[in-house]
Design goal:
- The chain is mainly α and about 400 residues long.
- The protein has two domains: about 140 residues, no CATH class; about 240 residues, Phosphate transport system protein phou homolog 2, domain 2 (Methane Monooxygenase Hydroxylase, Chain G, domain 1), CATH 1.20.58.
- Helices cover about 85% and strands about 0% of the residues.
- The chain is built from 14 helices and no strands.
- α12 packs antiparallel against α13.
- The C terminus is likely disordered.
- Keywords: Coiled coil, Membrane, Transmembrane, Transmembrane helix.
Length: about 400
């Protein structure tokens, strides 16, 4: 993966430190403002409860803060209602406490899928309303008021003081994945060309499988990035890009799956693969196609990285492949793939009428099957790459910055 210049790395470190400070400032301001508002409305006790609620509901994104605020308020309402209802009719006894906590726990378990935090708040609020509310009848109302004030103010500060940090991180994650997969393609090309010993073919397949798993695992980061932009007024320039990330990741996942299939085909062929590479030049031509695809994928990764840096406010121009050159490579690869498919069809027809007189042990029909499988995977990879190049060009032209246009 390409190392960023020192100035960019230095700026990123300062930016990370600034974000940590901003997160602390969020909680501080939310707690202070919540305390002041609740104090003016209902006094010191409500102020303390509101400040606590504001700190609790604040999450890494505005959308998560909204969800937790709603769950906290609903949990308090349900819990307080249970305690007030039971105490009103049955009074405060040991078995009353048992009934309150049991009922609140059952309700919490039943609605846990709708909100895990709400499920934990119900028995807590019920018990506090039952025990504390005996000495101070206004406590249930104050707890609810504190949850409402703290939740609303926490949401306000979470939205207003939440830069699109995770959206930028998702873009960086995608760029790193693209370039990492691009770097594995030359290794796969060497395997297809017969330059890798048969004893290492299984290890190459396992590596490709690990790369595919890593691509699938990155979905969480991209989902958090999309969530970071919900109700976020500072991330509008990234909206179109982040919405296109799932499609880009889907294409990358399909690409790595085809790479894994190619590695598996070579590994399963075993010693026969070295024999085929020795007698036939088509394996080296397939390997060259993989190397060209690696260059195209590297282009996509660097363009995504460029978009990520620029939308972060860093004016840095990456030295990347010329776009026209990559488009020419794509056209050339498609043409060569068509030629290889025609050559395979011709070889298949010849194989059906006679056996070739070459000194080899591999059966001709088996060789045709292997070639067909590889060409099918190469064709799918090329289709995925074409879609990825189209997507990143659309990002360039779609409004992040005019400087991306070639």
């Amino acid at each position: 993966m390409r190392t960023l210049p020192w100035t960019i790395q230095h700026n990123l470190k300062w930016r990370k430190a600034g974000l940590l400070g901003l997160a602390a400032l969020q909680k501080t301001l939310a707690a202070a403002v919540s305390w002041q508002v609740a104090f003016l409305l209902a006094g010191t006790e409500a102020a303390a409860l509101a400040a606590v609620s504001a700190v609790i509901v604040l999450q890494v994104t505005g959308w998560q803060t909204i969800q937790k605020s709603i769950e906290r308020v609903l949990g308090v309402i349900i819990g307080i209602s249970i305690s007030i209802g039971i105490v009103h009719y049955l009074g405060l006894q040991v078995w009353t406490i048992f009934c309150v906590v049991f009922a609140a726990s059952i309700i919490g378990i039943c609605i846990q899928k709708q909100g895990a935090y709400m499920a934990t708040q119900i028995p807590i609020s019920a018990l506090l309303g039952l025990v504390v509310g005996v000495g101070e009848e206004s406590y249930p109302l104050l707890r609810l008021l504190g949850a409402l004030i703290g939740g609303v103010i926490g949401i306000a500060f979470s939205i207003l003081l939440s830069p699109p940090t995770y959206a930028h991180k998702a873009q960086k994650t995608l760029a790193n994945l693209l370039q990492e997969v691009a770097q594995t393609l030359p290794t796969l090309a060497d395997t297809v060309a017969g330059s890798v010993a048969s004893s290492r073919q299984l290890a190459i397949y396992e590596h490709m499988h690990a790369v595919e798993r890593k691509v699938r695992a990155s979905e969480r980061d991209l989902a958090l990035g999309r969530e970071n932009l919900r109700f976020n007024p500072w991330g509008r320039s990234l909206q179109g890009i982040v919405e296109g990330q799932p499609h880009m990741l889907e294409m990358l996942e399909k690409l790595t799956r085809q790479m894994e299939r190619i590695a598996w085909t070579v590994s399963e062929t075993g010693n026969s693969w070295e024999e085929m590479c020795t007698f036939y030049a088509w394996a080296k031509r397939y390997a060259e196609l993989l190397r060209i695809m690696g260059e195209m994928l590297d282009f996509v990764g660097k363009r995504v990285q460029q978009v990520s840096l620029t939308t972060s406010g860093m004016n840095y121009k990456l030295e990347i492949h010329d776009e026209n050159r990559v488009l020419a490579q794509l056209e050339q690869a498609q043409k060569r793939l068509t030629e290889e498919e025609a050559a395979l069809l011709k070889d298949r027809e010849e194989t059906s009428v006679k056996q070739q007189a070459k000194p080899e042990s591999t059966h001709p029909s088996y060789r045709v099957v292997v070639r067909s499988s590889l060409l099918l995977d190469l064709g799918r990879m090329l289709d995925d790459l074409e879609e990825m190049i189209t997507t990143v060009r659309r990002w360039q032209a779609g409004g992040v910055s005019g400087q991306f246009l070639s």
